[in-house]
């Protein structure tokens, strides 16, 4: 039996590097955007169906729950955009070292937080 096998496989106790968190969040934001596209397309369909359904959608979008959903989708979009730009820089050869990757991840998180807060102010 190999004694070099990992002993602790509890994912809640494993300390991941910041680059792993940015990568995981990038994938999660992509899934949220994919699922949110259904909601947005339904809203577009409602807005174009008739004048009455447009007014109904307009009233629905004024509710706090709808604003929260819109802010969540905007947050996912903004994070995914910032992390995607980081990937484009890495494809160009910028920030490929371990230190550069960590710095890039911290910059992605900082810029995304600022943009998400600004989006929240804009939505509310």
**What is the CATH topology classification name?**
3 helical TM bundles of succinate and fumarate reductases
Order of helices and strands: HHHH
Rg, Å, rounded: 20 Å
Can you give the mean pLDDT?
94
Write down the domain tally: 1
Largest beta-sheet characterization: none
Protein name: Succinate dehydrogenase cytochrome b556 subunit
Transmembrane segments: 24-44, 65-83, 103-123
Binding site for heme: 80
Subunit structure: Part of an enzyme complex containing four subunits: a flavoprotein, an iron-sulfur protein, plus two membrane-anchoring proteins, SdhC and SdhD. The complex can form homotrimers.
Q: How is the secondary structure organized here?
A:
Blueprint: H1 18-49, H2 51-61, H3 64-91, H4 98-123
Helix pairs in contact: 1-2, 1-3, 1-4, 3-4
InterPro entries: SQR/QFR_C/D (IPR034804), Succ_DH_cyt_bsu_CS (IPR018495), Succ_DH_cytb556 (IPR014314), SuccDH_FuR_B_TM-su (IPR000701)
Pathway: Carbohydrate metabolism; tricarboxylic acid cycle
Subunit structure: Part of an enzyme complex containing four subunits: a flavoprotein, an iron-sulfur protein, plus two membrane-anchoring proteins, SdhC and SdhD. The complex can form homotrimers.
């Amino acid at each position: 039996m190999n004694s070099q096998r990992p002993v602790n496989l509890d994912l809640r106790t494993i300390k991941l590097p910041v680059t792993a968190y940015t990568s995981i969040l990038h994938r999660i934001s992509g899934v949220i955007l994919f699922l949110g596209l259904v909601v947005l397309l339904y809203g577009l369909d409602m807005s174009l169906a008739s004048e009455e359904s447009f007014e109904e959608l307009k009233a629905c979008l004024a509710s706090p729950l709808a604003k929260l959903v819109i802010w969540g989708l905007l947050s996912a979009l903004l994070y995914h955009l910032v992390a995607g730009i980081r990937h484009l820089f890495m494809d160009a050869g910028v920030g490929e070292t371990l230190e550069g990757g960590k710095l890039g991840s911290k910059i992605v998180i900082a810029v995304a937080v600022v943009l998400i807060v600004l989006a929240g102010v804009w939505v509310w």
